[in-house]
Amino acid sequence: MKKLIFKKFNQDILKFFVTFLLIMSLIVWIIQAVNYFDFVTEDGHGLQVYFFYTLLNFPKIVHRILPFIFFISLFYIILQYENKNELNLFWFNGISKIFFAKKLLLFSLIIFLVQIFLGSFISPKSQYEARNFLKNSNIDFFTSLIKEGKFINVAKDLTIFIKEKNDDGSYNDIFLDDSKNDASRMIYAKKGILLSNNKNKVFRLINGKIINYKNFETNTFKFDEIDFSLNDFDSQTIIVPKIQEISTRGLLGCFFNINTEVFASFNCGDSVKNEIVREIMKRLYKPIYIPLISLLSCFLIIYDKNHVNQKRNINIIFFLIIIILVISEVSLRNISLSFYSIFVYILIPWIIFIFSYIFFNRISKNA
Length: 367
Hints:
Layout: H1 2-35, H2 38-41, H3 47-56, H4 58-83, H5 88-92, H6 97-135, H7 142-145, E1 151-152, E2 159-165, E3 171-177, E4 184-197, E5 200-214, E6 217-229, H8 248-255, H9 273-284, H10 289-297, H11 310-333, H12 339-366
Helix pairs in contact: 1-4, 3-6, 4-6, 4-10, 6-9, 6-10, 8-9, 10-11, 10-12
């Protein structure tokens, strides 16, 4: 009977948790997707790139909000069981409150492992694939970005100015500047047409001239028609991998100076060691707060719904867990390479857990 009761209780928590997690993740994803629309409107990427990039960022959202959603799920289900007098089934079957807490802690360890798996493998991998997807994409919406009478620099090392756009899709009075650090080249054409073939994009320029400037020498020549390739220009979007996009194995190798393969574009030096420590702790240690949330939620069962102090007890526990979640974020941001800083960060949740467990065990016997 005890197994059936806990099985039903765990299933209710899991159903609510998964459903609420997906709903909230989708809401956050939609809001974030709106912000990412700059990839189309400003950086010139196509809708396909935009969609897959935002979709690959979904695991990161799930990983970020999972502890809070788990807390809300526990809070809601325990209070629902109390309001429906279903918690009495546990006590009538000889289940003590400390045994209830231990069972809930075991259940929270599953969520704890899922969070580590998400943060250590799924989220970094998906974020890297999203960044790689941007890196390998071409500027699909180049045509829509061109505005009459405006300078645009959607691509690196390329500035375009067009005076007028015709009804047939052609352009009049075109100015291009693809100057680099060691050389300068400016092109003027009376007319131009954008040609696209699969991923190849060409600006066909008609009746103009090119001015080259290098090593204090200037060369100018006219042309009747040339094709200016746009494939050699990269988007302005940042494509260098960030720390949160690097594998956990790569970060550990960087931190311990082991010859572990890390992206060539990532500078594994002392200047980023603090950020690496924070990222490793976020992935591998911060989930320890999930069992702590579970234990603190068990304080809801100390009093029944008719007790005079129950409402105050609910409010105290709710705000206490919120404070714990804030502490987990603030302490992580302030962690550094010093032994003292790391030791304090590791110790904080264990101190809270041990004192909470002792206190719960004591008052549950007297409640």
